[in-house]
């Protein structure tokens, strides 16, 4: 299995580096300038010398490498390894300390999930502190959605009698306890989970304590000479995965309270959203606290006057990756690209300031920027770059920081060089801004007393055969974007509703799937009628798109909350709903944490890039088979996107059978 899946990845990326023609054109342009990008670096692993592959380390790819102590690194021999690896490693089935391959693989998995959970919990802490300080009148932010705050308080069973600010302080304080205290259970996990899911997690010991407590235990368990039981290590990964989902809920819910619940919005995606005649500022990362202020102040008349005085027609804010998704969903800000496009966006020569907060920030952007006038600006202490200008962000001084960054960008405009390049073609139209509240708002126009009933009725009839979440990153290990797009098209033909978040949503957007026209062209006849009816009800006068953009990667929690609501309404476990998820081009530790958490909640999750666990048949079986018995969810590993779509469809068919629905 190991060599086959890794070979399949190589076959996919060897046909084309990116599904999107504009991205391919930008790769060629960057190469012509001698600029090194993620695509070039990936290609180096596909070269060979006198017949010997210059591949990635197969020991690492299979998860059978251990670097935990100074007796190592240790490599576990495996019969699936290429001959050059088998002949260069001792034929050992244990590390020097005696740790088995199963232990090493499970331990590496737990560490990966732990880093992902730490990332999302850190984001949640930023959101919670911002809400807390805002309620204490210490920031320039406002509580824009008091009704959303009340709904959060109801789930947490908080006392709301003392007013909105007091409620915000209670909710934020509780979130901070979930993240950093010694509590034995996370309230944002237990309060949001349906009873059936909560019971399963409790019985398996998978209700997480505070994130800090779980990460402390994880660090201790994975150190040399500690936990050697693979099952216990994987169960801890599941517990951390649930903690990760709870952290996503904190971030997404609190950001809605501060900045507003997203509503459907029209915008654009593509390199062409950069404006030759304006000061271009790119916001990149994941936390929208600063980017919201940058967008707000970009309309300041004083700053606009200064920009015009220097020859610009205005200030143009565009998004990249998930900070881009955040300001798209609430502000309609156009998207320049996702994680794989960040270097290429700078290579257009049109970016005055490339502003980053946290996560998915490639260190090489500062090297690309040196070819141009672009100022790379870091803003968070967790994510600094060697040569970038660092402007520390603090919630209390958000306006001042945003204004300073815009000043730098404006002053940089006259320094723009003549080496400017944009690929052919116009940016693609997109409709984004879907949320649980948006969906229920439209459905309530059909049935005010029971908004979920129209959705349930359409699922029961088969007009909506099921739903699949496309999540995660875009990857250079396959043809970038292609796996997401192929799976989406294959499933929507079969009347499956596609919900997408993060860079997966942007992949679908670049392929034109976030438009009403895509429903007409690609959707099956039965779901096409549903999308038409919902579009008319929403007042669009045309169908909703067949792919619903639900936001950034923390907004996986929106989908989880909607799934929980459906499960509670029907009185069934999440595992029995006709839903699934696909992380067809996953890259980060965060994706590993989200996927593991989703499986623990009862969701079947497809992976389209080989996870580093396949060196252990026992751990692989645990994740792809045993977890289904324990939690109801499992991982499916399939590199071929067409085959993956069929496997996801088969999973939906099985759940429909269990519910007694037509298949």
UniProtKB/TrEMBL annotation:
Binding site for [4Fe-4S] cluster 2: 66, 69, 74, 97
Alphabetized InterPro entries for the sequence: CO_DH_a-bundle (IPR016101), CODH (IPR010047), HCP/CODH (IPR004137), Prismane-like_a/b-sand (IPR016099), Prismane-like_sf (IPR011254)
Cofactor(s) annotated in UniProt: [Ni-4Fe-5S] cluster; [4Fe-4S] cluster
Gene Ontology biological process: generation of precursor metabolites and energy; response to hydrogen peroxide
Superkingdom assignment: Archaea
Top-rank EC class of the record's enzyme: oxidoreductase
Binding positions ([4Fe-4S] cluster 1): 57, 65
Catalytic activity entry: CO + 2 oxidized [2Fe-2S]-[ferredoxin] + H2O = 2 reduced [2Fe-2S]-[ferredoxin] + CO2 + 2 H(+)
Keyword entries, A-Z: 4Fe-4S, Iron, Iron-sulfur, Metal-binding, Nickel, Oxidoreductase
EC number: 1.2.7.4
Any one Gene Ontology molecular-function term assigned to this protein's record: anaerobic carbon-monoxide dehydrogenase activity
Pfam families per record: Prismane (PF03063)
Chain residues that bind [Ni-4Fe-4S] cluster: 286, 322, 360, 473, 503, 553
Key word ATP-binding present: no
Function: CODH oxidizes carbon monoxide coupled, via CooF, to the reduction of a hydrogen cation by a hydrogenase (possibly CooH).
Subunit and interaction comment: Homodimer.
Similarity comment: Belongs to the Ni-containing carbon monoxide dehydrogenase family.
PANTHER family registered for this protein in UniProt: CARBON MONOXIDE DEHYDROGENASE, HYDROXYLAMINE REDUCTASE
Protein name as catalogued: Carbon monoxide dehydrogenase
Natural source organism: Candidatus Methanoperedens nitratireducens
């Amino acid at each position: 299995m190991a060599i086959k899946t890794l070979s399949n990845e190589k076959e996919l990326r060897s046909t084309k580096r990116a599904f999107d023609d504009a991205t391919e054109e930008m790769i060629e342009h960057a190469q012509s300038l001698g600029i090194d990008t993620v695509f070039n670096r990936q290609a180096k692993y596909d070269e060979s010398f006198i017949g010997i592959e210059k591949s990635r380390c197969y020991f690492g790819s299979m998860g059978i490498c251990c670097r935990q102590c100074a007796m190592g690194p240790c490599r576990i021999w495996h019969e699936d390894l290429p001959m050059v690896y088998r002949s260069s490693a001792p034929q050992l089935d244990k590390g020097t300390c005696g740790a088995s391959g199963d232990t090493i693989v499970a331990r590496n998995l737990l560490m990966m999930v732990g880093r992902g959970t730490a990332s999302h919990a850190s984001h949640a802490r930023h959101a919670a502190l911002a809400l807390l300080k805002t309620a204490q009148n210490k920031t320039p932010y406002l509580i824009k959605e008091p009704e959303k705050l009340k709904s959060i308080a109801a789930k947490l069973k908080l006392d709301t009698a003392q007013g909105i600010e007091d409620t915000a302080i209670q909710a934020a304080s509780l979130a901070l306890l979930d993240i950093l205290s010694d509590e034995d259970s996370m309230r944002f996990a237990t309060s949001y989970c349906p009873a059936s899911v909560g019971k399963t997690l409790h019985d398996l010991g998978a209700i997480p304590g505070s994130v800090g407590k779980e990460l402390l235990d994880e660090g201790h368990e994975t150190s040399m000479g500690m936990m050697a039981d693979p099952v216990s290590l994987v169960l801890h990964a599941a517990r951390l995965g649930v903690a990760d989902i709870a952290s996503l809920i904190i971030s997404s819910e609190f950001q809605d309270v501060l900045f507003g619940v997203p509503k459907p919005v029209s915008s654009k995606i593509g390199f062409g959203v950069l404006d030759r005649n304006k000061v271009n500022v790119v916001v990149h990362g994941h936390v929208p606290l600063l980017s919201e202020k940058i967008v707000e102040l970009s309309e300041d008349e004083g700053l606009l006057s200064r920009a015009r005085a220097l020859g610009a027609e205005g200030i143009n804010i565009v998004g990249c990756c998930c900070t881009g998704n955040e300001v798209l969903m609430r502000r309609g800000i156009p998207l320049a690209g996702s994680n794989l496009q960040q270097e290429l966006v700078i290579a257009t020569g049109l970016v005055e300031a490339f502003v980053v907060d946290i996560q998915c920030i490639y260190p090489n952007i500062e090297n690309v920027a040196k070819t141009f006038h672009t100022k790379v600006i870091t803003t968070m202490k967790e994510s600094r770059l060697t040569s970038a200008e660092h402007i520390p962000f603090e919630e209390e001084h958000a306006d001042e920081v945003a204004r300073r960054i815009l000043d730098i960008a404006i002053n940089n405009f006259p320094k723009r060089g003549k080496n400017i390049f944009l690929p052919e073609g116009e940016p693609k139209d997109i409709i984004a801004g879907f949320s649980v509240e948006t969906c229920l708002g439209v459905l309530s126009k059909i049935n005010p007393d029971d908004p979920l009933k129209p959705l349930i009725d359409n699922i029961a009839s088969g007009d909506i055969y099921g739903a699949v979440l496309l999540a995660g990153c875009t990857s250079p290990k396959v043809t970038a974007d292609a796996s997401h797009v192929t799976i989406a098209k294959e499933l929507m033909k079969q009347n499956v509703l596609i919900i997408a978040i993060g860079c997966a949503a942007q992949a679908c957007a670049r392929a034109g799937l976030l438009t009403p026209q895509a429903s007409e062209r690609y959707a099956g006849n039965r779901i096409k009628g549903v999308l038409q009816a919902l579009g008319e009800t929403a007042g669009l006068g045309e169908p909703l798109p067949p792919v619903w953009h639900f936001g950034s990667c923390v907004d996986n929690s929106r989908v989880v909350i909607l799934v929980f609501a459906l499960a509670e309404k029907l009185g069934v476990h999440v595992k029995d709903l006709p839903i699934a998820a696909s992380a067809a081009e996953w890259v980060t530790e965060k994706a590993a944490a989200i996927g593991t958490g989703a499986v623990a909640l009862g969701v079947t999750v497809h992976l389209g890039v080989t996870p580093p666990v396949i060196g252990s048949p026992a751990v692989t079986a645990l994740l792809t088979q045993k977890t289904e018995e324990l939690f109801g969810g499992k991982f499916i590993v399939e590199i071929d996107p067409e085959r993956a779509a069929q496997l996801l469809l088969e999973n939906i068919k099985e759940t429909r059978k269990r519910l007694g629905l037509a298949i």
